[in-house]
Amino acid sequence: MLVGSVTKFLKGGLSPAHVWVSVSLGFLLGMLPDYGASAGLVAIVFLFASLTRVNTGLFVLSFVVAKTLLLLGLPWLFALGHSALQGVFGTALVKLSQLPLLAWFGFERYATVGALIVGVPLALATAFIVNGGVQKMRNASAGLQANATFDAFAQSFLGRTALTLLLGKSSKEGLGSVLNKSVPLFRVKEGLIGAALIALLALGIWQWAKSDLKSALVPVLERANGATVDIDRLSLNIWTGTLDVTGLEVADPSDLSVNLFSATELRISVSSAALLSKRILVKEVRAQEARSGMPRMSPGQLTGPLIGPVAVTAPTSDEVGSYVKDAEAWLDRLRQVQALLKRWEGVIPEGSESEPAIGSPSYAEWLDEQIAQSGYTGLSFTPIEDSYWSALAEKVSVDSIRIAAFADKDLSVLAENLASNPKQLAVSPRIEMASDDGSIGMLMQLDELSGAGANQLELSFDGLDAKSTLSALKPDIAKRVNGGQIDLSLDGEFRYAGEGELTLDLLATLTDSEFIIKRRKLPVANFMVPVKVRGSFAAPKVRVDNKAMEDQLKGVAEDALKDEAKSRVEDKIKSKLGDRLKGFIR
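Structure tokens predicted for AsmA-like C-terminal domain-containing protein (586 residues):
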């Protein structure tokens, strides 16, 4: 029964529509040099071949002929595709390759483009020629069996093979009736059955994603992290593209007693439609009750890192006041940040050398070397290849995260447009952070990554210890300060390209403190220290506005002298007035 169903499925007609479809699809499939790179086009060919009653014989013969032509002319087809992509058609193919589904056609491969340029016209021309021959044979079918020459051909091995391939077992029936037999072009019933099977398969995958995805994903996450990853529950909704994680704990490989990150709930929403364009679009990432650097209930275990972590650390509130003492550490951090931003943009090339300019003396040699390493079918057009699998997270929000370095402060974090290649996607990453009590705030807009201009930075720390903070800005003043708090605010622009460029203004505001001047304690309600940060990442220059500080110190001293003089006058008046009152009362 199964064999009969398969035979019936493979049997097709010989009407003009059947011939055109069979030959065109078979020829097109045979001309594809890399089925993996052209997975979308292959899927469409097989889907259309399944929903129409293609003639299997014509389909197979067309495939064999096309594959033979492809193998014989592959170097020439590669050169044709290379000329097309590097020439006037390159821009159009770049735009086509970014469209949904067309991104899976393999337009980035030189050999594929060349094969399609030649293959599509050849497929249509072959279908036209074959259809003309088949239709003439059908028209003459009434007298074929009475023809002695044809009868001898039909009885020979070649004739039997050709007729069986073209007509199947029905060739043993009357050739006239078989050649002119009416066969529907589309498979309606089979199409409905296939759609039902696909729906059942998708439902099975969905059930697996809801139940067994955790066991498959956790080992991958542990290997990537290098230490234990604990998850209470993990589920994936294929229809909505959302991944829900509860009870997430990621152990810190450098200190297994604490968590690098943990959250009670984590939701990731991914656009399924973007996958049709070979892009990863994360619509939203939302975490609740997130923690970083907090102790674990039980120590984690090392699992061996798959990806090495980027060694970039952020200064804490306690470290703000130790710039002079730890200047080298701060300079190293600035260099790390600069290198990270350059690598994010792609300024620092990784791996092999970049492609030489077309027409340069070294280009032909470079191209021959690449062909020798990858073959004709493996080379890709860089502008299209680089645009694939770009990742963009439109919104990442953490409602409440507690970081060990900031003690008991709850922070809210909002990041937008975090992209793997911001310049290509024309988006500027933006990161905002604020504490619930308002003592910490940060806003950073990385416009340079998208080519829109300089990067913007706003940073504020309130309630810092006055003595340690002023030691970083003006050590000699710090010795004369007793108690109080200081608020820091930093804003301005910076660039990381080249040596980097810093144009930042820092303002330290001292409140409720005392200045010790010539052994006198002068109360200070409000004292500001303006600082300018200029120069480069490698050699930043910190300059304090001494004139503004001197003016404020004079004002503090004058106010203190006035208050002291006023106090003495009042004391004398009270003393004299008290003596007279005593004599009068007597």
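The CA atoms of residues 501 and 536 lie 5 Å apart.
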